[in-house]
Amino acid sequence: xxxxxxxxxxxxxxxxRLIAAIVVTTGIVALDxxxxxxxxxxxxxxxxxxxxxxxxxxxxxxxxxALGHPVIYGSREPQRADVQALVARSGAxxxxxxxxxxxxxxxxxxxxxxxTATESTLRTVDLAGKLxxxxxxxxxxxxxxxxxxxxxxxxxxxxxxxxxxxxxxxxAFNTLGAHVMADPxxxxxxxxxxxxxxxxxxxxxxxxxxxxxGFEAQDLGPLRHARQLEGMALLYMVPLLKGxxxxxxxxxxxxxxxxxxxxxxxxxE
Length: 269
Ligand SMILES: NC(=O)c1ccc[n+]([C@@H]2O[C@H](COP(=O)([O-])OP(=O)(O)OC[C@H]3O[C@@H](n4cnc5c(N)ncnc54)[C@H](OP(=O)(O)O)[C@@H]3O)[C@@H](O)[C@H]2O)c1
Prior knowledge:
disordered N terminus, 8-stranded mixed sheet, globular, single chain, two-stranded antiparallel ribbon, 44% helix, 10 helices, binds NADP nicotinamide-adenine-dinucleotide phosphate, Rossmann fold
């Protein structure tokens, strides 16, 4: 006859086996769900039209492709040898096409055009509903001073918004050099990519992309702040234009703390 303590030990062992079975089964289910979600996310990666195959296009294109985005380079000469070499560098799903075709085929559009060509080019395409990333700077070089100046009253981003009011426009990547876009490690430390835009969901999505590319993202408000971001680009250029090269810097916004009453400072109203 079994004692009550042996019966209790048997019950505990059965309970332990049951819990182990539940943990294993749910673990496998969770793993299955996680892997199918990851697979679905990868196969659903947004296609990106990159307009322009210069420094910015060639820096970000291969990196977006490496993240799994099908990249379509929009070029004035898609068959040109250097454009085809860039396509080859961007993996099997990359291609090159005319600007209009690239935009038509893509979910997202990255405007990697000189400011002087941006407005005329965008007049030829329909950006309605597309998530548009704008790294352009409406700056011009002033030979008399050796510095840059703003070329418009507002900003490149606001002029783009006027041309494409139904685009989901986010300004990003305009405050760092193409060499850092290509290789964040080249900066020798963390780099912040400020974001402005009026479409919160689009801005959040670009923020995720910025982090995937190895940068920190900082939301700095609405699109009307774009002129300030373009001013940051103007200042970024100072040591690059006039030197000394040892003064070259990157923008990195260190996390701070909000002011508190105990600091003896009147809180902002
Ligand atoms: N370079 C940087 O470090 C940097 C950093 C931050 C922001 N930005 C901004 O990003 C934008 C792109 O800069 P980027 O340095 O990549 O320019 P870029 O090297 O001059 O390349 C621009 C590309 O745009 C295409 N394009 C179309 N129309 C053009 C025209 N009329 N003239 C010249 N090119 C034309 C060309 O590609 P196809 O020949 O294939 O058509 C060209 O390779 C600019 O607005 C710039 O202010 C640049």
